[in-house]
Amino acid sequence: MAPSSAPTEAQSKTSTFKNKYRLAFLLLILLLLTALALRQQTAMTRNLLSSLSNDSFEQQQSLSGGFPPSGDEADLIIRRSFEQSYAHILPCEKTSWNEIDSGITKECMKQTRDHIISENVTVPWWFQTLLRDILGSGGGVYAPWHHFYTTKPPFHFCTVGKVATTEWRRVFCKLNAQDCIDGSASCRRNCTWRTTKDMPADAPWAVFVRDPLERLLSGYLDKCYNPMTRRNQGHCEPNVVFSPMKGLVTAQNKAYPNLLDSLDIEGQEKAMFGAYVDVLPLKWNVHFVPQAMFCDLHRNIKNYDFVGNMGKDFYFDLDRMANQFGGQLPNVLNNTFGYGDHVKSGNHENTGKQGSGHAMHTPAKVARFYTARTVRKALEYLSIDYVTLGLEVPEWARQMLREESSSIATYQ
Hints:
The chain is mostly helical. It has helices at residues 2-54, 58-64, 73-84, 103-118, 125-135, 165-175, 212-223, 227-233, 239-242, 269-279, 297-300, 314-325, 329-337, 340-345, 363-369, 372-381, 383-388, 395-409; strands at residues 147-151, 154-158, 205-209, 306-309. It has a 4-stranded mixed β-sheet with strand order 1-2-3-4, covered by helices on one side. Helix 4 runs antiparallel to helix 5. It starts with a helix and ends with a helix.
């Protein structure tokens, strides 16, 4: 038996050596393919940036009052996206400025939609679905609850979803409290956001806006992150993906499954947020629609008497608003937002709503959910906010794009 075992052992060693050789060879091929793919991606990125920098943006400049040329990738993405989509919005022949009725703005946007369809204008698919959803039944963008007004002191206010809407409702309930004493039919739960008194014709207009990237993440954390919230509110759309409603059945007449129930998503914040941003335009929810679409801000924000920003100087903008309009507004704003102590201490930091899981007051939160890819996609969808509302791309987002570009360059 001994003589026959020696060749078997030698054959085994030879087979092991061959397997190791094959594995090393496969790994070498894989590394070469990876390097080639990275090289091609770098070349494509450079070509994209080159083509973007040569694109005409005269129409964008005329709409926004001038968008400065820049070699920064974030600015180039915004410029390119805006020209391909929002720049096709037609002028509104009937002015919507100072109109209580939002019907004018909706009719004007319908003209844009009809023009794109009838003239077969090429626009991105997500812009087509945006027009479909904001103009469709239940879109919410042109609903009257985005327009608050009061006579104490007299001013109009455009409220935008995920820009402290809950707090602004409290503010106007307090300002209009007297209107509900007599049991006015316009009051619900002893509150009205729109005074029953006649508004002065020259009453000023005010609005607060917010960085679009932070607003998008705040909406996701508020409406999508918690499974219970997804099911109860139904605002994390499309619901067929994130929380199918009862009664939704498959072609086999079986209850449509919840696609997230069987997934272990612990520690997968970047992947899940990225997945949501990818499919968001399949059904635009009002909480994620660009801010510029509300109250026709993309046309009219230049006419507003006060524009605040829900950023690091939020409390100082509240103080500026209180001083500008006066009356009981300073006390009501301070009771609602507690801005007074921050202003006195010179604290230029928006600490957010205490106890809120979707407040954006820590840089670590955006780093936990965003990737460079998600930033690019979000800038594309929300380019109109940066172009028409005078908002700046936050430095953390620019840095995220730069770091990825640098890492790609090292593989050349």
